[in-house]
Amino acid sequence: SLDDMTNDLHKRINIAENFSSDLVHEIRNPLASLKSASEIISETEDQDKREKLVKILAHDVERIERLITDYSQMLKDEVALSTEKMNKIDLISIVQSVVDDFNNIYIEKRGIKTELITDNYIKEFKILGIENRIEQILANLLENAISFSRDNQKIIVEVQKNQNDQVVLRVIDQGQGFKEQKLTKIFERFYSNRPDKFGEHSGLGLNIVKNLVELHGGIINASNNINQNGARVEVIFPKL
């Protein structure tokens, strides 16, 4: 109805306005750093100091570029999602394809193997979804798990059904686990706690995952492994 369309439009406008405000806030810090570094570099003749300042300038430019790129992608996703149609799809075939892609890269690169585990007695795990968005969800979760993993560790991807007959996708790593007391924080926009060695990120990855999961009517939650190192992120899809 017209009222539903109007309400949906207002909701999208509010989301865009809030996101834009957050983006402006995040860009202010590297801009301030850029300004300070550029002022100092114009005043100093110390070559070592100038080289360090140039690195700071390059780093801040990359950070701003990354924020804008990820923000633009989110806006494109928002537009695309409003036109994409959900279909009944088998989660296993999609997950296996993504797992194979990651193994082709990270087994050789870092010795990290991702293993898919399913309930063998269930032939299909049907959900209502958009195939490339499900791929995007899992790829982001695997990238996050790999960033916290050491070389030669293993990542487990589980696809199961719970007691409510809902399909559950679970990514389990052997890394350092989540340090946050409030684990919902990791899904907030621009929040990032990745190790320095992995490089700086915009902090949008898990927020994008959360939005995509909710688009599918699902629930996402995170926890640390019990009695062992590592963490797990679980996505529960609604029952068909």
From TrEMBL:
It is an enzyme of class 2 (transferase). Its main location: membrane. Pfam families: HATPase_c (PF02518), HisKA (PF00512). Residues 22-240 form the Histidine kinase domain. Its EC number is 2.7.13.3. PROSITE patterns: HIS_KIN. The keyword Amino-acid biosynthesis does not apply. It is found in: Membrane. GO terms for cellular component: plasma membrane. GO terms for molecular function: phosphorelay sensor kinase activity. CDD domains: HATPase, HisKA. Keywords: Kinase, Membrane, Phosphoprotein, Transferase, Transmembrane, Transmembrane helix. It catalyses: ATP + protein L-histidine = ADP + protein N-phospho-L-histidine. The keyword Phosphoprotein applies. SMART domains: HATPase_c, HisKA. This is histidine kinase. The lineage of its organism: unclassified sequences, metagenomes, ecological metagenomes.
